[in-house]
Amino acid sequence: MRAVHTGASATGILPVVDLSRSGKMRPIIFLVLSISSVCAVSLNTHWEEEDTKWISGILENVLKKKVDSLGSLHYATSALKLLKVTPASDAAHLACEAAKKADLSELDNLYDALAISADLPNCALPSVAGAQKLIDGVIKEITPNGERIYRALRSADHGKKKKFQVDQGAFDKILLEAMKEDSPLNLGWVFNAAALLNKDLVSKYFDKIKNLVSQADEVDKKFLQFEGGLTTTAIAVHGIMSLAEKQGKVPALSQEQTLLFSNYLLSRKHVSTERAAFHLLKALGVLVNNHQLVPITVSLVGPVMFDRMQPIKIAVTNVFGLPIEATDVHVDITPLGSERALASNVKMNRLSS
């Protein structure tokens, strides 16, 4: 697909162009990108290495100091895995031991322990007897909410190697009932849960995405968020994009809305709790690993003032600052304060890595 951006962009290089008679100027660059099978939208910023260092330090501290909180250990280990950061061996050992000793007669503990076991190497749980009964028990509950249904389905997903079974029809039925409570947080959990069902059951949930998006609040024409702040917004975005990926369709979310949601999430990247970090990173992760809508950061490589004898270098990255494969990039170059382009539809040359 093709997407139009304002700013500098794309991993590549613009051939030398005579930008002005004076030799230097501050131009505005308009870009048209072709990116295979993905509709790209442009962000204000992206995740930096310093952000990883900041959050990983907080998460490592959680593993050492919150050994009595299985939920905290789950959020910390899972967030570190999303960051591709290996925790210190002693901290990982403490978290693993906590998971192995957890009382798995409660669904929340089962959900957390299975996640820790899946995210840490060599951390198999000694026994999950009764887990299948816990998962099936959610089906029989009178009013299970979206989060509880998600935890049951996610536990079953984590337990695939243990051959946990899921009654798809029964979970679909209770999930439809739970969807009647249409708050942003509950719908976010419902969509996350639905994405774990078989594809043939997902379309009716996918069609409700527009109902959730309509509840979002725009802030200063810069951000889009849900009432409840970061956690609710992150859970909702993850649910929307997970459903879209399961269906293989672009969700009822415009490019601008995707941009505003992404910019909001990135504006909150200096979180201080493991729960917020976990949900934030999951949401950012699904914005990278999908085939429908991928937000990108547009940035100039080199000085702001251009020399007409030097090529202009620009880069396109995803929310984590990693390169995006742009198959075709053209630019229009216009002097700041002018409406007339000095160069139009100039094809960029890709730089070898």
From TrEMBL:
InterPro entries associated with the record? Ribophorin_II_N, Swp1
Q: Where is the Ribophorin II N-terminal domain?
A: 59-287
- Pathway the protein takes part in: Protein modification; protein glycosylation
| Superkingdom, natural source | Eukaryota
Kindly list the GO CC terms recorded for this protein: oligosaccharyltransferase complex
Membrane-related topology note: Multi-pass membrane protein
Where in or outside the cell it occurs: the entry states:
Endoplasmic reticulum membrane
- Name the major location: endoplasmic reticulum
Instruction: Give GO terms for biological process.
Output: protein N-linked glycosylation
Endoplasmic reticulum keyword on record:
yes
Function statement: Subunit of the oligosaccharyl transferase (OST) complex that catalyzes the initial transfer of a defined glycan (Glc(3)Man(9)GlcNAc(2) in eukaryotes) from the lipid carrier dolichol-pyrophosphate to an asparagine residue within an Asn-X-Ser/Thr consensus motif in nascent polypeptide chains, the first step in protein N-glycosylation. N-glycosylation occurs cotranslationally and the complex associates with the Sec61 complex at the channel-forming translocon complex that mediates protein translocation across the endoplasmic reticulum (ER). All subunits are required for a maximal enzyme activity.
Report what the protein is called. Answer: Dolichyl-diphosphooligosaccharide--protein glycosyltransferase subunit 2
Source organism per entry reads Strongylus vulgaris (Blood worm)
